[in-house]
Amino acid sequence: xxxxxxxxxxxxxxxxxxxxxxxxxxxxxxxxxxxxxxxxxxxxxxxxxxxxxxxxxxxxxxxxxxxxxxxxxxxxxxxxxxxxxxxxxxxxxxxxxxxxxxxxxxxxxxxxxxxxxxxxxxxxxxxxxxxxxxxxxxxxxxxxxxxxxxxxxxxxxxxxxxxxxxxxxxxxxxxxxxxxxxxxxxxxxxxxxxxxxxxxxxxxxxxxxxxxxxxxxxxxxxxxxxxxxxxxxxxxxxxxxxxxxxxxxxxxxxxxxxxxxxxxxxxxxxxxxxxxxxxxxxxxxxxxxxxxxxxxxxxxxxxxxxxxxxxxxxxxxxxxxxxxxxxxxxxxxxxxxxxxxxxxxx
Length: 346
Known about the structure:
Elements: H1 9-17, H2 20-32, E1 70-85, E2 93-113, E3 116-130, E4 164-167, E5 169-176, E6 178-180, E7 183-194, E8 212-222, E9 228-239, E10 249-259, E11 264-275, H3 288-291, H4 293-296, E12 300-311, E13 316-329, E14 331-345
Antiparallel strand pairs: 1-2, 1-14, 2-3, 3-4, 3-5, 5-7, 6-7, 7-8, 8-9, 9-10, 10-11, 11-12, 12-13, 13-14
């Protein structure tokens, strides 16, 4: 791209506008859609929401939404969790121990028709639990001797202090992109399907092992005569019921960013989830209600973060972001989550 051309507005928009559509599509499908997928243990906030690929100026937004354009990306995420926010405990914190989550996510997007894009992605997640309150499916592991257990031998014991990894959920989404008076709108629908019947009863589990459908809409706009933009994404997620418990929820993503020049973009963001789910106690640790409690309990949260995008050249973008939890109910208390992602457009 060469050196920045200064702050002349029209010149900047001509240069940056060529990239807007691919990044907006990635934003909606690979990032916005991933925001509803628990990319860490099942009690954790959706750690995939760390990844924030910035929108670009809206001028010429439809120029590159024609059939044949696409993008591929690979991301790495590292998250540290310590204890759990639980309103049943004194002070709202349950001393359960710590969880370290690492993941690699692969995403592919493609404009299969003018204004229409599709996205396919899947994360590989590796988690390790350290603490004195493991989830015990049976009494066979040494850490579970003499404990009350739901006795599900088909469930792998993962809370042994070692890393355990697995592919989590496939996500497949479709979005329609339209520019209305310099406001870019993109309604989308995304399906999440477990890649296999992985273990969900564990602090170190990779997910909830539930099918989901998300209906969302994304709006982005750059302020006139300014390098400042904002983005809002709202969605409703319909989740497969377990033990007849409704755990459908709403989500909200907010982002405010600033284009320093043609190469660097800074942003701050917030991600929130609030919905249905069980809020009571599980006194019987031998019951199926306890065995499925991580699937049926509401996991409400709000987290905030900051991020940076760096344009290596016309095709490659390196993005980094860090976030932490600021409020939660029945959810892992993650202290920080760091994300790095490389995206290539074609």
